[in-house]
Amino acid sequence: MSERMPRPETMRAWRVVRHGEPTDVLEQHEVAVPAPGTGELLLRTGAVAVNFPDVLLCRGEYQVRPELPFVPGIELVGEVVAVGDGVAASAASAGLRPFEPGDRVVASRIGVLSEYAIVEADAAHLAPASLDDVHAAGLVIAYQTAWFGLHRRAALQPGETLLVHAAAGGVGTAAVQLGVAAGARVIAVVGSAAKAETARAAGAETVIVRAEQEDFAAVVNELTDGRGADVVFDPVGGDAFTRTTKCIAFEGRIVVVGFASGDVAPVRANHALVKNYSVLGLHWALYQQRRPELVREAHAELVRLADAGAITPVVGGIVEFDQAPAAIQELAGGATVGRLVVRVADAVAS
Prior knowledge:
This is NADPH:quinone oxidoreductase family protein. The protein has helices spanning 22-25, 52-59, 87-93, 133-136, 141-153, 170-181, 193-202, 216-223, 239-244, 269-275, 284-290, 292-307, 324-332; strands at 2-3, 10-16, 26-32, 40-49, 75-83, 104-108, 116-120, 124-126, 161-164, 185-190, 206-209, 229-234, 248-256, 278-281, 315-320, 339-343. It is of the alpha/beta class. Strands 1, 4, 5, 6, 7, 8, 15 and 16 form an eight-stranded mixed β-sheet that branches. Strands 11-10-9-12-13-14 form a six-stranded parallel β-sheet, sandwiched between helices. A two-stranded antiparallel ribbon has the order 2-3. It is globular.
Protein backbone atom coordinates (compact mmCIF):
# COMPACT_ATOMS: atom_id res chain seq x y z
CA MET A 1 0.00 0.00 0.00
CA SER A 2 1.35 3.45 -0.94
CA GLU A 3 0.48 6.50 1.10
CA ARG A 4 1.14 10.21 0.73
CA MET A 5 1.19 11.30 4.35
CA PRO A 6 0.18 10.15 7.83
CA ARG A 7 -3.59 10.22 8.28
CA PRO A 8 -5.58 10.74 11.48
CA GLU A 9 -6.82 7.75 13.44
CA THR A 10 -10.44 8.92 13.57
CA MET A 11 -12.85 10.95 11.46
CA ARG A 12 -16.37 12.34 11.46
CA ALA A 13 -18.98 10.31 9.62
CA TRP A 14 -22.75 10.46 9.27
CA ARG A 15 -24.39 7.10 9.95
CA VAL A 16 -27.92 5.77 9.57
CA VAL A 17 -28.72 4.21 12.94
CA ARG A 18 -32.29 3.08 12.14
CA HIS A 19 -34.60 3.40 9.15
CA GLY A 20 -36.80 6.45 8.70
CA GLU A 21 -36.63 10.05 7.49
CA PRO A 22 -33.08 11.40 7.06
CA THR A 23 -33.23 14.03 9.79
CA ASP A 24 -34.58 11.45 12.23
CA VAL A 25 -32.15 8.60 11.59
CA LEU A 26 -28.79 10.20 10.76
CA GLU A 27 -26.28 10.68 13.56
CA GLN A 28 -22.76 12.05 13.39
CA HIS A 29 -20.20 9.69 14.90
CA GLU A 30 -16.46 9.65 15.44
CA VAL A 31 -15.18 6.49 13.78
CA ALA A 32 -11.84 4.99 12.77
CA VAL A 33 -10.33 6.06 9.47
CA PRO A 34 -10.32 2.90 7.32
CA ALA A 35 -7.38 1.51 5.40
CA PRO A 36 -7.80 0.62 1.73
CA GLY A 37 -7.97 -3.06 0.88
CA THR A 38 -6.82 -4.75 -2.30
CA GLY A 39 -7.99 -2.75 -5.33
CA GLU A 40 -9.19 0.16 -3.21
CA LEU A 41 -8.34 3.83 -2.67
CA LEU A 42 -8.62 5.89 0.50
CA LEU A 43 -9.82 9.42 -0.26
CA ARG A 44 -9.86 12.59 1.80
CA THR A 45 -13.37 13.72 0.95
CA GLY A 46 -13.72 17.12 -0.66
CA ALA A 47 -17.47 17.17 -1.35
CA VAL A 48 -20.38 14.74 -1.57
CA ALA A 49 -23.28 15.15 -4.00
CA VAL A 50 -26.67 14.25 -2.51
CA ASN A 51 -28.65 11.70 -4.54
CA PHE A 52 -32.16 10.31 -4.12
CA PRO A 53 -30.77 6.86 -3.24
CA ASP A 54 -29.48 8.54 -0.05
CA VAL A 55 -33.11 9.17 0.89
CA LEU A 56 -34.03 5.57 0.10
CA LEU A 57 -31.03 4.25 2.04
CA CYS A 58 -32.19 6.17 5.11
CA ARG A 59 -35.70 4.78 4.72
CA GLY A 60 -34.51 1.22 4.13
CA GLU A 61 -36.16 1.25 0.70
CA TYR A 62 -33.10 1.10 -1.54
CA GLN A 63 -32.28 -2.01 -3.57
CA VAL A 64 -29.21 -2.46 -1.38
CA ARG A 65 -29.80 -2.51 2.40
CA PRO A 66 -26.53 -2.17 4.31
CA GLU A 67 -26.42 -3.50 7.85
CA LEU A 68 -27.16 -0.85 10.50
CA PRO A 69 -25.45 1.40 11.39
CA PHE A 70 -23.95 2.43 8.06
CA VAL A 71 -22.62 5.49 6.28
CA PRO A 72 -24.77 6.75 3.37
CA GLY A 73 -23.59 8.97 0.52
CA ILE A 74 -22.89 7.48 -2.89
CA GLU A 75 -20.98 10.11 -4.93
CA LEU A 76 -17.95 12.24 -4.10
CA VAL A 77 -14.82 14.05 -5.14
CA GLY A 78 -11.70 13.69 -3.05
CA GLU A 79 -7.94 13.42 -2.89
CA VAL A 80 -6.22 10.05 -2.89
CA VAL A 81 -4.25 9.65 0.34
CA ALA A 82 -3.55 5.91 0.22
CA VAL A 83 -3.57 3.25 -2.51
CA GLY A 84 -4.34 -0.38 -1.75
CA ASP A 85 -2.42 -3.39 -2.98
CA GLY A 86 -3.10 -4.49 -6.53
CA VAL A 87 -4.25 -1.10 -7.83
CA ALA A 88 -1.12 -0.44 -9.86
CA ALA A 89 -1.05 -3.95 -11.31
CA SER A 90 -4.73 -3.79 -12.28
CA ALA A 91 -4.24 -0.45 -14.01
CA ALA A 92 -1.19 -1.71 -15.87
CA SER A 93 -3.06 -4.75 -17.16
CA ALA A 94 -5.74 -2.44 -18.56
CA GLY A 95 -3.19 -0.07 -20.05
CA LEU A 96 -4.14 2.74 -17.67
CA ARG A 97 -2.17 5.18 -15.55
CA PRO A 98 -2.31 3.93 -11.93
CA PHE A 99 -3.75 6.19 -9.25
CA GLU A 100 -1.24 7.81 -6.94
CA PRO A 101 -1.51 9.66 -3.61
CA GLY A 102 -2.35 13.28 -4.37
CA ASP A 103 -4.62 12.52 -7.34
CA ARG A 104 -7.99 14.27 -7.30
CA VAL A 105 -10.74 11.85 -8.29
CA VAL A 106 -14.49 11.44 -8.56
CA ALA A 107 -16.15 8.14 -7.69
CA SER A 108 -19.38 6.43 -6.73
CA ARG A 109 -19.89 3.95 -3.89
CA ILE A 110 -22.23 3.63 -0.90
CA GLY A 111 -20.60 4.91 2.28
CA VAL A 112 -18.86 8.19 1.40
CA LEU A 113 -20.59 10.76 3.65
CA SER A 114 -17.54 11.03 5.88
CA GLU A 115 -14.25 12.91 6.09
CA TYR A 116 -12.38 9.95 4.58
CA ALA A 117 -13.88 7.31 2.30
CA ILE A 118 -12.95 4.04 0.67
CA VAL A 119 -13.75 3.59 -3.04
CA GLU A 120 -12.88 0.92 -5.56
CA ALA A 121 -10.10 2.07 -7.87
CA ASP A 122 -11.93 0.61 -10.87
CA ALA A 123 -14.88 2.94 -10.18
CA ALA A 124 -12.78 6.10 -9.73
CA HIS A 125 -11.82 8.65 -12.37
CA LEU A 126 -9.55 11.68 -12.41
CA ALA A 127 -11.61 14.82 -11.77
CA PRO A 128 -11.67 17.55 -14.44
CA ALA A 129 -9.25 20.37 -13.60
CA SER A 130 -11.89 22.82 -14.87
CA LEU A 131 -14.38 21.96 -12.10
CA ASP A 132 -13.99 22.81 -8.42
CA ASP A 133 -14.95 20.26 -5.76
CA VAL A 134 -18.54 21.43 -5.41
CA HIS A 135 -19.23 21.00 -9.12
CA ALA A 136 -17.05 17.94 -9.69
CA ALA A 137 -18.85 16.05 -6.92
CA GLY A 138 -21.94 15.71 -9.11
CA LEU A 139 -20.26 14.64 -12.34
CA VAL A 140 -20.44 10.86 -12.04
CA ILE A 141 -23.96 9.52 -11.56
CA ALA A 142 -26.12 12.17 -13.23
CA TYR A 143 -23.90 12.80 -16.24
CA GLN A 144 -22.97 9.16 -16.79
CA THR A 145 -26.66 8.26 -16.61
CA ALA A 146 -27.58 10.97 -19.08
CA TRP A 147 -24.66 10.14 -21.37
CA PHE A 148 -25.47 6.43 -21.60
CA GLY A 149 -29.18 7.14 -21.97
CA LEU A 150 -28.80 9.65 -24.78
CA HIS A 151 -25.83 8.27 -26.65
CA ARG A 152 -25.40 4.55 -25.91
CA ARG A 153 -29.09 3.64 -25.69
CA ALA A 154 -30.94 6.22 -27.82
CA ALA A 155 -28.17 7.22 -30.28
CA LEU A 156 -29.29 10.87 -30.20
CA GLN A 157 -28.39 12.68 -33.44
CA PRO A 158 -27.75 16.35 -34.22
CA GLY A 159 -30.94 18.10 -35.25
CA GLU A 160 -33.25 15.66 -33.45
CA THR A 161 -35.78 16.78 -30.86
CA LEU A 162 -35.07 15.65 -27.28
CA LEU A 163 -37.76 15.77 -24.60
CA VAL A 164 -36.44 15.72 -21.02
CA HIS A 165 -38.73 15.09 -18.04
CA ALA A 166 -37.85 16.42 -14.56
CA ALA A 167 -35.47 18.73 -16.40
CA ALA A 168 -34.60 20.89 -13.39
CA GLY A 169 -33.22 18.02 -11.31
CA GLY A 170 -29.67 16.74 -11.21
CA VAL A 171 -30.09 14.06 -13.88
CA GLY A 172 -32.49 16.22 -15.88
CA THR A 173 -30.17 19.21 -16.13
CA ALA A 174 -27.36 16.85 -17.16
CA ALA A 175 -29.55 15.45 -19.94
CA VAL A 176 -30.48 18.94 -21.12
CA GLN A 177 -26.85 20.07 -21.25
CA LEU A 178 -25.68 16.91 -23.01
CA GLY A 179 -28.56 17.16 -25.48
CA VAL A 180 -27.60 20.71 -26.37
CA ALA A 181 -23.94 19.70 -26.65
CA ALA A 182 -25.00 16.94 -29.09
CA GLY A 183 -26.76 19.45 -31.32
CA ALA A 184 -30.32 18.43 -30.43
CA ARG A 185 -33.32 20.70 -29.99
CA VAL A 186 -34.24 20.30 -26.31
CA ILE A 187 -37.75 20.60 -24.88
CA ALA A 188 -37.86 20.43 -21.08
CA VAL A 189 -40.71 19.49 -18.76
CA VAL A 190 -40.61 20.73 -15.16
CA GLY A 191 -43.02 20.49 -12.26
CA SER A 192 -43.37 24.16 -11.32
CA ALA A 193 -42.71 27.66 -12.57
CA ALA A 194 -39.98 28.04 -9.95
CA LYS A 195 -37.98 25.33 -11.71
CA ALA A 196 -38.41 26.63 -15.25
CA GLU A 197 -35.47 29.04 -15.20
CA THR A 198 -33.10 26.25 -14.14
CA ALA A 199 -34.04 24.22 -17.23
CA ARG A 200 -33.68 27.28 -19.46
CA ALA A 201 -30.27 28.06 -17.99
CA ALA A 202 -29.21 24.48 -18.73
CA GLY A 203 -29.95 25.18 -22.39
CA ALA A 204 -33.54 24.04 -23.05
CA GLU A 205 -35.09 25.83 -26.03
CA THR A 206 -38.62 25.44 -24.65
CA VAL A 207 -39.77 24.73 -21.09
CA ILE A 208 -43.18 23.24 -20.33
CA VAL A 209 -44.47 23.70 -16.76
CA ARG A 210 -46.75 20.79 -15.95
CA ALA A 211 -48.58 22.75 -13.25
CA GLU A 212 -49.61 25.27 -15.91
CA GLN A 213 -50.01 23.00 -18.93
CA GLU A 214 -52.24 19.99 -18.36
CA ASP A 215 -51.25 18.16 -21.54
CA PHE A 216 -47.52 18.46 -22.28
CA ALA A 217 -47.87 15.93 -25.12
CA ALA A 218 -50.12 18.29 -27.04
CA VAL A 219 -47.58 21.09 -26.62
CA VAL A 220 -44.73 18.87 -27.85
CA ASN A 221 -46.74 17.84 -30.90
CA GLU A 222 -47.56 21.46 -31.64
CA LEU A 223 -43.93 22.55 -31.27
CA THR A 224 -42.80 19.79 -33.66
CA ASP A 225 -45.59 20.29 -36.23
CA GLY A 226 -47.11 16.98 -35.24
CA ARG A 227 -43.94 14.93 -35.60
CA GLY A 228 -43.25 14.45 -31.89
CA ALA A 229 -39.99 13.99 -29.98
CA ASP A 230 -37.29 11.75 -31.46
CA VAL A 231 -35.82 10.91 -28.06
CA VAL A 232 -37.44 11.13 -24.62
CA PHE A 233 -35.41 10.98 -21.41
CA ASP A 234 -37.75 9.86 -18.63
CA PRO A 235 -36.66 9.56 -14.99
CA VAL A 236 -40.26 10.08 -13.79
CA GLY A 237 -42.41 7.23 -15.08
CA GLY A 238 -46.11 6.94 -14.30
CA ASP A 239 -48.33 9.43 -16.09
CA ALA A 240 -45.29 11.16 -17.63
CA PHE A 241 -44.43 7.94 -19.47
CA THR A 242 -48.01 7.25 -20.53
CA ARG A 243 -48.44 10.74 -21.97
CA THR A 244 -45.03 10.56 -23.61
CA THR A 245 -46.29 7.76 -25.85
CA LYS A 246 -48.73 10.30 -27.31
CA CYS A 247 -45.93 12.59 -28.50
CA ILE A 248 -43.21 10.18 -29.57
CA ALA A 249 -42.02 10.46 -33.18
CA PHE A 250 -41.92 7.76 -35.84
CA GLU A 251 -38.86 5.62 -34.93
CA GLY A 252 -38.64 7.57 -31.67
CA ARG A 253 -36.84 6.22 -28.59
CA ILE A 254 -38.11 6.53 -25.01
CA VAL A 255 -35.32 6.00 -22.47
CA VAL A 256 -36.66 4.77 -19.12
CA VAL A 257 -34.26 6.02 -16.44
CA GLY A 258 -36.31 5.74 -13.25
CA PHE A 259 -39.65 6.15 -11.53
CA ALA A 260 -39.44 9.30 -9.40
CA SER A 261 -43.24 9.52 -9.51
CA GLY A 262 -43.43 6.23 -7.60
CA ASP A 263 -45.58 4.74 -10.35
CA VAL A 264 -44.31 2.22 -12.89
CA ALA A 265 -46.48 2.63 -15.98
CA PRO A 266 -47.05 -0.45 -18.17
CA VAL A 267 -45.43 -0.60 -21.60
CA ARG A 268 -48.11 -1.32 -24.20
CA ALA A 269 -46.40 -3.49 -26.79
CA ASN A 270 -49.28 -3.08 -29.25
CA HIS A 271 -48.98 0.72 -29.05
CA ALA A 272 -45.22 0.58 -29.65
CA LEU A 273 -45.89 -1.64 -32.65
CA VAL A 274 -48.47 0.54 -34.39
CA LYS A 275 -46.55 3.79 -33.73
CA ASN A 276 -43.16 2.23 -34.49
CA TYR A 277 -41.23 3.48 -31.43
CA SER A 278 -38.81 1.87 -28.99
CA VAL A 279 -38.77 1.75 -25.19
CA LEU A 280 -35.22 1.44 -23.87
CA GLY A 281 -34.26 0.66 -20.30
CA LEU A 282 -31.17 2.17 -18.72
CA HIS A 283 -29.46 0.73 -15.65
CA TRP A 284 -26.18 2.64 -15.56
CA ALA A 285 -24.64 0.56 -12.76
CA LEU A 286 -24.63 -2.48 -15.06
CA TYR A 287 -22.15 -0.70 -17.32
CA GLN A 288 -19.80 -0.35 -14.36
CA GLN A 289 -20.07 -4.09 -13.76
CA ARG A 290 -20.09 -5.40 -17.34
CA ARG A 291 -18.49 -2.77 -19.58
CA PRO A 292 -16.17 -0.62 -17.44
CA GLU A 293 -14.22 0.39 -20.53
CA LEU A 294 -17.34 2.17 -21.83
CA VAL A 295 -17.66 4.02 -18.52
CA ARG A 296 -14.05 5.21 -18.84
CA GLU A 297 -14.70 6.35 -22.41
CA ALA A 298 -17.82 8.24 -21.34
CA HIS A 299 -15.95 9.91 -18.49
CA ALA A 300 -13.20 11.03 -20.87
CA GLU A 301 -15.82 12.64 -23.10
CA LEU A 302 -17.50 14.31 -20.12
CA VAL A 303 -14.15 15.73 -19.02
CA ARG A 304 -13.61 17.07 -22.54
CA LEU A 305 -17.03 18.72 -22.52
CA ALA A 306 -16.48 20.16 -19.04
CA ASP A 307 -13.08 21.56 -19.97
CA ALA A 308 -14.65 23.09 -23.09
CA GLY A 309 -17.36 24.75 -20.99
CA ALA A 310 -20.16 22.76 -22.67
CA ILE A 311 -21.34 21.14 -19.43
CA THR A 312 -21.23 22.27 -15.81
CA PRO A 313 -23.16 20.49 -13.05
CA VAL A 314 -25.97 22.72 -11.85
CA VAL A 315 -25.63 23.22 -8.10
CA GLY A 316 -28.86 24.18 -6.40
CA GLY A 317 -27.40 24.42 -2.90
CA ILE A 318 -24.23 23.94 -0.87
CA VAL A 319 -24.27 22.89 2.77
CA GLU A 320 -21.50 22.23 5.26
CA PHE A 321 -20.87 18.77 6.66
CA ASP A 322 -22.89 19.34 9.84
CA GLN A 323 -26.02 20.14 7.79
CA ALA A 324 -25.93 16.98 5.66
CA PRO A 325 -29.14 15.40 7.10
CA ALA A 326 -31.13 18.54 6.29
CA ALA A 327 -29.86 18.47 2.71
CA ILE A 328 -30.92 14.85 2.23
CA GLN A 329 -34.30 15.65 3.77
CA GLU A 330 -34.71 18.60 1.42
CA LEU A 331 -34.08 16.36 -1.57
CA ALA A 332 -36.72 13.97 -0.25
CA GLY A 333 -39.25 16.82 -0.43
CA GLY A 334 -38.91 17.05 -4.21
CA ALA A 335 -38.60 20.83 -4.43
CA THR A 336 -34.88 21.05 -5.17
CA VAL A 337 -33.26 22.08 -8.44
CA GLY A 338 -29.89 20.89 -9.73
CA ARG A 339 -27.66 19.16 -7.22
CA LEU A 340 -27.37 19.63 -3.47
CA VAL A 341 -23.74 19.29 -2.42
CA VAL A 342 -22.25 18.70 1.03
CA ARG A 343 -18.90 20.42 1.37
CA VAL A 344 -16.77 18.18 3.56
CA ALA A 345 -13.32 19.74 3.35
CA ASP A 346 -11.72 22.80 1.84
CA ALA A 347 -11.30 22.48 -1.92
CA VAL A 348 -8.67 19.90 -2.78
CA ALA A 349 -5.99 21.40 -4.97
CA SER A 350 -6.10 20.05 -8.51
